[in-house]
Amino acid sequence: MFVHGKSTFISLDGDNLSAFVDTSELGRTSDSHDVTTYGKNSHVYSGGLLDGKATMAGTYDNTAGTGPRAVIEPIIGAVVQLIRRPEGTGAGKPQDTVNVLVTDYKETNPVADMVKWECEMQLSDDVASTVQ
Hints:
This protein has a single domain (5-28, 47-131), classed as Pnp Oxidase, Chain A. 4% of the residues lie in helices and 51% in strands. Strands 1, 2, 3, 4, 5, 6, 7 and 8 form an eight-stranded antiparallel β-sheet that branches. By secondary structure, it is mainly beta. It has one helix spanning 68-72; strands at 9-12, 15-16, 23-34, 45-59, 79-85, 94-108, 116-123, 128-131.
């Protein structure tokens, strides 16, 4: 069944940022090691360490103490917990929990539009995919 993104829950370092986020992504990758030997006509690969990145973004909100700027700027360069529930909160729905290194926070100020913000994070350790 198709799921609408409007119910997504996302928190960073224990702060629920869902009300400030309009897009988020959790991507996972793997190292790739070439193990090709003589006599092969094609490359042969073996997997390695897992890796990944996460992002979130939205329209800037200057809510003191709980807005994205107030929450994210102080933790740039720190490893904190990210929780993302792609189907929203509720029994039986999926939840991904992972430690992330907060690597980037930026704000964009277009002349004819709302101020936007985005945050980039590097996954740090395994993602725990569980059911709520």
